[in-house]
Amino acid sequence: MFRCKIFFHVGNELSLGTRASKGEAWIDASGLNVRGPDDTFLIPRTDIQKVDMYRFHGLSRVVQVDHRKGRLFLAATRLMIGQFALVNFFRTGKLYKALLDTST
Fold first, then answer.
1. Is the pTM of this model over 0.85?
2. Which CATH number belongs to the domain containing residue 78 in this structure?
3. How far is Cα 53 from Cα 95, in angstroms, rounded to an integer?
4. What does the pLDDT look like over 41-74, one tens digit per residue?
5. Which domain holds residue 76?
């Protein structure tokens, strides 16, 4: 099982003005679980359609997960205060690889 602290955004686009939420993600036999400040949700393995990773404005890695009900952006964090986040570059890469293994 893979678990890490994250910031995430549920929606079609991610920009510098996007309000992201602080949370925790873990991958287990059922799929990708995300716990945020308001609730916890699951994206089942069978619902994950596409997983991509890209550089967000050349500053950090962000993982994009397309699934049957929409799109989720997330990245592993070292620290998040308000809307300021220090992204854990290598842990985000591990999260991406774990999600690729989950979706296949």
1. yes
2. 2.30.29.30
3. 10
4. 999 999 999 999 998 766 789 999 999 999 999 9
5. 2-12+20-103
Q: Which DSSP string do the residues of the chain spell out, in sequence order?
A: -EEEEEEEEESS---TT---EEEEEEEETTEEEEE-SS-EEEEEGGGEEEEEEEEETTTEEEEEEEETTEEEEEEEEEEEETTEEEE-HHHHHHHHHHHHHHH-
Backbone angles phi, psi at 20, to 5 degrees: -95, 160
Give the HSE-up count for residue 23: Cα atoms under 13 Å, Cβ half-sphere.
Answer: 22
**Domain total for the chain?**
1
Residues in the chain: 104
Count of alpha carbons within 13 Å of 20, Cβ hemisphere only? 26
HSE value, Cβ hemisphere, 13 Å, CA-based, for 74: 29
